[in-house]
Structures
1.
Amino acid sequence: MEYLGDPDRPTGPLAELVWLRKIIVERALTRGDYILSGGARSDYYIDKFALFADPNVLRRIARLFTPIVAETQPDLIAGTELGGVVIATAVSQMSGIPMIAVRKTPKSYGAFANDFVEGPYHAGQRVLLLEDVVTNARSLLKAKDDLEALGLHVTTCAVVSRGLAPVRALIQFSLPRGNAPLEN
C-alpha cells in the first residue's frame, strides 16, 4: 500500500488535489464501455467505493472539505444516497457537525413512510449537501430542490465532477476518449 501521509497533518490544497487525482487513477479508474447513472455512455468509470473502502483515503478526502465547511458554516452536513452519505458521514465525523441523509425516493415503510430525509432538521438551517461523483448532477440538484422545499438553505458540493455539472467539486476529472495514456 502506498504511504498516504499522516491523516492528522494536512498538506497544501494543491498537493491534496494532485493526490486525489493520482489515487483515483491508481485505485478507482477502469476503462471500458459503461452506462452511467444518468444514462450517458462513457469509456471510463470511477469506482468511488474502491476509494471509500480505505479509511485513510476516506479520511483524507473528507478533510479536503474543511475549507468549504469553514466557508459555508453549515448547521448540517447532508449526503445523497448512497455515495454522498459515505462522504457526509466522514465529513460530519471530522467536523462535529450533525448529518442527514437524502434518499432518491421517499421510503415506503416504517414509522416515517414517505419521508426522503433521514435525521433531524428544521426549516432555516444551512446545509452542505455532498455527493461523490457527478456527471450532470441531476440527482444532486433534485436533492437540493427537495431540501429547499423543506425550508433549508442548501449549498452543494461533490468530490468529483466528470462533466459540466453546475455544482462546485473538489476536482474536475475528465479523460481523453479511447486508450490515451493517463498522466499521474
2.
Amino acid sequence: MIQLRPNTAVEGGMDMSENDGPDWWHRDHPVFTPLSGFFSGLAFTLVVPGLFAALLESFLAQHTVTDLFPVVLVALVVPIVLVARRQSRRFGLYFVLGMVATALVVVGVGALVVWILTSTA
C-alpha cells in the first residue's frame, strides 16, 4: 500500500509535490515560444481587423467606417516592436510568420474560389 505525504501526489510512479510542476511543460521548453508566437500571429491577423470593424460599425455610420478602416494598419506596430526588442525577437519572428502564413492562406483560398467561380460560369 502506498502512503502519501501531505501535499504530494503520485503520477506514473513519480512523487511530485504541489509546488513542483511537470518539468517538461514550462516556458523554457523549446517548442513553447514558436507555437505560441505562430498561433498568436494567426489569431492577431484574424481577430484584430474583425474586432476593429465590428466596434467601428457599432458606433459610427457605414461611410465613416469605410473611411476609418485603414487605421487598423496601426496594429502592425505590434509585430514590429516584438521583432525590434531583443527580449521578444524570437517570439516576434514566429508571430510575423503566423501573420504571413495566415494572410497567404486567406488570399490563396480566396483567389482559388474566385477563379473557380469565374471559370465555371
3.
Amino acid sequence: MHDGKPLITHQIEKLSEFKYPIFLVANTSEQVQNYIHDVDISKITAFIIDDYGIIENKNIRSPLIGLYTAFKELYHLNYQFAFIISCDNPFLNIDVINFMMKQFAFNDACMPIWDNNYVEPLFAIYKIAPFLKRAQENLSNKCFKLSKLLDQAKMKIKYVSIENEIKLLDDKLESFINLNEEADLSNFNHIKRIK
C-alpha cells in the first residue's frame, strides 16, 4: 500500500467508491494548498477551513473545531448527515462503513464502541443539525473535549460493538489503526510483511 502518497490519499480513494461528496476539513489555507498538491482534487467536492470565529483563543487545536466547522458548512449546504473520519486512519473498510450506514437509520449518530466503553467519535455518522448545535454550545462554553460532544446529549446514538460486530467485517480491525505520518505507514506495512 505504500506508494509515497500522503495518508489522506488512501482514504480518498476508498471513500470515492461510495460516489458521495467528499469534503476535506483543513486547519489553514496553507494546509489546503498542501492537499491540492498531494491529492487527486477531482475526487474532492470542496475544502473547508476551520472556523475559529466562535472561540477567543485562536491557538487552540481540537478535533471539535473541525467537527463544528464541517457540521456548520454542511448544514448550510442542506446536508442531513455526514460520515466523519479522521485523516490518520488510512485503512478504511468499505464493508464496515456500509454496515454503519445501515445501523444509522432512525438515530442521530452511529459510532463504534470498544468493550472498554471507549468510543470512536472520529469514525462515525452524525445527523448534522443536532450535533452542530451541540458543538456550537460546547465551543461557546470553552469545552473543547471531543468526548463532551456526546455527554448529556439528548440524542439517540447507536453504538456498534467493535469486537462483536465490526470485527466480523474487519477481522484485524485495521479500520481503527491510527497512523500520523507516511513513515508510520511504511513501518506498518513492513510489520505486516514480516507476519
4.
Amino acid sequence: MFPAVGMPEMFIILVVVLLLFGSKRLPELAKIIGKSMREFRKAAEEVKREIDISDDL
C-alpha cells in the first residue's frame, strides 16, 4: 500500500517539521511523542495481559 520510507523522504519530513515548529520546540515535541509512545505500549501490554487471562478461563 505505502512504499518504504528512505533517507531522502525522512530528510524532507524533518525539514518540514523544522519549518512548521521551529528548532526550539522540536525537543519538546520529541519528549511528548516519547511519553505518548510509552503510555500506548503500556496500555497495549495491559490489554494483551487481560486477553491472555480471559483465554485461560
